[in-house]
Write a structure and sequence with these properties.
The complex is a heterodimer of chains A (about 300) and B (about 280).
Chain A: H1 2-41, H2 43-48, H3 51-56, E1 60-61, E2 66-67, H4 70-101, H5 104-119, H6 122-144, H7 154-178, H8 182-190, H9 195-206, H10 208-224, H11 227-232, H12 250-256, H13 265-298
Antiparallel strand pairs in A: 1-2
Helix pairs in contact in A: 1-13, 4-7, 4-10, 5-7, 6-7, 7-10, 8-9, 9-10, 10-13, 12-13
Chain B: H1 2-38, H2 44-48, H3 64-94, H4 100-115, H5 118-131, H6 138-161, H7 166-174, H8 179-190, H9 192-208, H10 234-243, H11 247-276
The chains are: A mainly alpha (about 300), B mainly alpha (about 280).
């Protein structure tokens, strides 16, 4: 009886372990599978047109077989860079404030705030963008520069996107600054540096790789954001020349045309290729930042 | 020079305070403007009826189909994801603990998956769907959302399991339990609140994401009765209604947005509370 019980327990352990290993294998293969699936689907397009042709021309006319993604890629890049320019100083300043100066109760308030901000669905950000940011751009910001616009511009997209990635970057930055050993800051303070000098010369310098990778992760997050940006950015398929021009980012292209693509195989293939391009760009940024951050942590 | 040093610090401290306030203010404005626009439009009809004939022209009906659809979708995929994530997170923290390199590689892969945009998951779900000859349906949506939230859930659980002291693990093994018993009976109990938080986090993601289900669930005015039927979801309902040219329909979108915001707020409050509750079984060190 005793022995039997032991056998059962061992068997149960084995079963559990095999299930765990199966899952682990699937999850590890998933990124590969994602890339491969998208690649196979975009094969049809790549057979007809060269990859350079698709990536570096800007004519998008699915009906006559022209699939140039350049304007979409550039739009995506511009929105992303712009949003990072807005988010980056805010995140850095707040992260320094929260890790170096803030009192306990400020942290107690800010933690839920950051969590909720991170949890708000992107469609809500989009609605908010239409309600608040688009009018703000068209009524106040654009006239400041003497521009007339409906408000559905790259700038509106960037502002919405910036608010969306702030909690994300902020969380990583806080972790980066927390991981800097206190001995370092104490040494600096003991040598007579002010708090601010310590931050400038010790914390920012020591945390520099971490800051860069946090921004990299922010870029990859911003690059793939779909619905919120799609709702406010205007969606005009040409290369944008200024921040008060409408843009048409890559994810918006995919999301907007899913209905029409079914009828034309080439069209569908082109959209799958756009998803692949998106996937590859995001992966590269992610990979680089993650490697940088692991290096930073082990140092 | 000396005075400048202090002035510089003063200026930056003000800037820091301003940017911190900016973040709080941003959240307040977002929630306020959604509720301000949405609440007056909210009615019992909105949340208790499915769209009627002239719904998309501003006539009677509600968005019950989207609420129920979203609920089905995210509950099913959260359960499925839990079925995968919990064993995986336990495996990482019990069996792989000794193999630092393997463990870090797995975390690295999960982080990569975590960073994949949801629209890419949507496209991938679409590929799976046509590969297996499925049509746009609740099932296809569930699969896609499950894939999308697994990395989120595993990483969140992993962070919780990481905090279990090694002494507890050793104590459990030394009393003769197998490693999987240690996993499910000791680690699980010790980390119960954290796991609930992780599940709620993933649930919130699942209910709020629109891009991943855009390709896969289709859209319908009916409440789905089987896995093979298409379904509406709340984020997509908001998105489509806001795109309509008629003012009444757009106003309903604001109401729907208020409902979704309300759900998300409840979920995050529950997640906060759960880390306080369920501490009964926890052993403190």
């Amino acid at each position: 009886m005793m022995l039997q019980n032991r056998e059962i327990r061992r068997l149960r352990d084995r079963l559990n372990v095999s299930w765990m290993i199966v899952i682990l294998a699937i999850v590890l293969f998933l990124p590969l599978l994602l890339g491969l699936g998208l690649f196979v689907q975009s094969g049809l397009l790549l057979k007809e047109l060269s990859i350079w042709n698709v990536l570096f021309t800007s004519q998008w006319m699915p009906m006559s077989g022209k699939f140039g993604l350049l304007s979409f890629i550039l739009s995506s890049l511009m929105v992303t860079v712009l949003s990072l320019l807005i988010a980056c100083p805010v995140c850095l300043l707040t992260a320094i404030h929260l890790t170096q100066y803030a009192k306990r109760y400020v942290l107690n308030i800010m933690h839920p705030v950051i969590d909720i901000l991170a949890g708000i669905p992107s469609v809500i950000y989009g609605v908010w963008g239409i309600l608040a940011v688009v009018p703000l751009v068209s009524k106040y910001i654009a006239p400041l520069f003497g521009v007339q616009t409906s408000g559905y511009t790259l700038l509106a997209g960037a502002i919405v996107l910036a608010i969306m990635i702030i909690p994300f970057i902020l969380n990583i930055l806080i972790e980066v600054f927390r991981s800097i050993p206190t001995e370092l800051t104490e040494a600096s303070l003991a040598l007579g540096a002010t708090r601010w000098q310590t931050i400038k010369f010790v914390i920012l310098r020591k945390g520099f790789p971490g800051i860069i990778s946090a921004l990299g992760l922010g870029i990859s997050r911003a690059f793939g954001e779909t619905i919120a940006v799609l709702m406010v950015v205007g969606n005009v398929a040409k290369i944008p020349t200024g921040i008060f021009q409408p843009g048409y980012p890559l994810p918006a292209l995919i999301a907007n045309n899913y209905g029409e693509m079914m009828s034309i195989p080439m069209y569908q293939s082109a959209l799958m290729f756009s998803a692949l391009v998106l996937f590859v760009i995001v992966m590269l940024f992610n990979l680089a930042s993650r490697i940088a951050i692991t290096k930073f942590e082990t140092k | 020079m000396k005075y400048f040093r202090y002035k510089e610090e003063k200026i930056f401290r003000v800037l820091m305070l301003v940017s911190t306030l900016f973040i709080v203010l941003a959240l307040a404005i977002i929630i306020f403007s959604i509720l301000y626009k949405g609440l007056p439009m909210l009615s019992w009809e909105m949340i208790s009826q499915t769209p009627k004939g002239g719904f998309y022209l501003g006539k009677e009906g509600g968005i019950l189909n989207a609420i129920i659809g979203s609920f089905y979708l995210s509950v099913c995929s959260t359960l499925l994801a839990l079925f995968v994530s919990l064993p995986l997170a336990l495996f990482m923290n019990i069996y792989l603990k000794r193999y630092k390199f393997v463990l870090n590689t797995v975390r690295f892969f999960l982080d990569l998956l975590w960073g994949v945009p949801s629209i890419v998951y949507g496209a991938f779900g679409f590929i799976i769907m046509i590969h297996f000859g499925l049509r746009a349906s609740l099932l296809a949506g569930i699969i896609t959302v499950t894939l999308f939230i697994i990395p989120i859930m595993v990483r969140a659980m992993d962070e919780v399991f990481k905090t279990v002291p090694v002494g507890l693990y050793e104590a459990s093994l030394s009393l003769g339990s197998t490693r999987s018993e240690t996993a499910y009976r000791v680690f699980l109990r010790q980390c119960y609140p954290g796991i609930i938080t992780a599940v709620l986090l993933a649930f919130g993601r699942g209910i709020g994401d629109a891009a991943s289900v855009l390709f896969t669930t289709g859209f319908t005015d009916h409440i789905p009765v089987s896995l093979m039927q298409p379904t509406a979801t709340l984020p997509l309902a908001i998105f489509f209604q806001l795109g309509a040219p008629i003012a009444e329909v757009q106003e309903r979108a604001y109401a729907a947005a208020a409902i979704l915001t309300f759900f998300i707020l409840i979920i995050s409050i529950l997640a906060r509370l759960s880390s306080g509750k369920f501490q009964r079984n926890k052993i403190n060190f």
